[in-house]
From TrEMBL:
Domain of life: Bacteria
Official protein name in the record: SRPBCC domain-containing protein
Activator of Hsp90 ATPase homologue 1/2-like C-terminal domain: residues covered: 13-140
Pfam families: AHSA1 (PF08327)
Entries under InterPro entries matching the protein: ASHA1/2-like_C (IPR013538), START-like_dom_sf (IPR023393)
Family to which this protein belongs: Belongs to the AHA1 family.
């Protein structure tokens, strides 16, 4: 069965540098991502982990950084301990963030592959939009 890929966009009234910081800064991620602990040095071939607790269940999601161009592009593999799948290569997705800035407005395009069906695709897209909506609120606070 062929797996699906989603691509979704979020527009930020913020620079690419600000959005990048929001995606990679541990403290900022913890603020908008419901207490999630992000860990990575954001170097190619390095691990990336997301851990915390959701609905009383501990989780540790993980992957490997595949490509990184600061303030422009990040791609990593991703497996969730809450996915109900085994931690093996065929169960990992690729997730990428592409940032395109013009006049202090940044369009973030998120792509995720290896999605099992349309329901899972819709669920993932809704989660990305909600999560990036929280980052948007954080970055666009009046100064």
């Amino acid at each position: 069965m062929e797996k699906l890929t989603l691509s979704t966009e979020v527009t930020f009234n913020a620079t690419a540098a600000q959005v990048w910081k929001g995606l990679t800064n541990y403290e900022m991620v913890k603020t908008y991502f419901f207490g999630t602990e992000l860990r990575s040095d954001f170097k190619k071939d390095s691990p990336i982990t997301f851990s915390g607790e959701w609905d009383g269940n501990k989780y540790e999601d993980r992957g490997i950084i595949l490509e990184v161009i600061p303030e422009e592009y990040l791609k990593y593999t991703y497996w969730s301990s809450m996915s109900g799948t085994e931690d093996k290569p065929e169960n990992y997705a690729n997730v990428s963030y592409a940032l395109n800035e013009a006049d202090s407005v940044t369009i973030l395009t998120i792509t995720q592959d290896n999605i099992k069906d349309e329901n899972a695709k819709e669920h993932s897209e809704n989660n990305w939009q909600m999560l990036m909506g929280e980052l948007k609120k954080l970055l666009e606070l009046p100064s």
